[in-house]
Write a structure and sequence with these properties.
By secondary structure, the protein is an alpha+beta fold. About 20% of the residues lie in helices and about 25% in strands. The protein has one domain. It is built from 3 helices and 5 strands, in the order E-H-E-E-E-E-H-H.
Length: about 120
């Protein structure tokens, strides 16, 4: 079960969460704070207070999946938005998980398959 396998929406919650929380509490945060259905198949990304841990949850077919990523050095960086969430692309999430800033200014635009053919 790969969090990047399907073209679901990726929602990054900018407010820090308690990383002791499990799937039930994090899905309750999605329902209560965002008013969204956490079982819709979207990937929800949560960050810790010190920005050194990230948890991702998604409901796939008939089961919950949760991934945890911990930074050994430094932390995860992103540009703060105006709202409590950011909708991000896969490449932006990959930048974040690699320890880079989520929205680098010099990142090239993604190339669609139909432009190559």
């Amino acid at each position: 079960m790969n969090p990047f396998a399907t073209p679901d929406r990726i929602v990054f919650l900018t407010r820090p969460q308690d990383m002791r929380a499990g799937i039930n509490r994090l899905s309750a945060v999605v329902a209560a704070e965002l008013g969204e259905d956490p079982m819709a198949g979207d990937l929800y990304v949560f960050v810790s207070r010190n920005c050194r841990r990230v948890k991702m949850i998604r409901f796939e077919t008939n089961a919950w999946c949760m991934w945890t990523v911990a930074a050994v050095r430094g932390g995860f960086r992103w540009r703060a938005g105006a709202g409590p969430t950011l909708e991000v692309e896969r490449r932006q999430l990959m930048f974040l998980l690699e320890g880079l800033e989520m929205r680098p200014a010099d990142a090239p635009a993604p190339i669609a398959a139909h432009t190559l053919l």
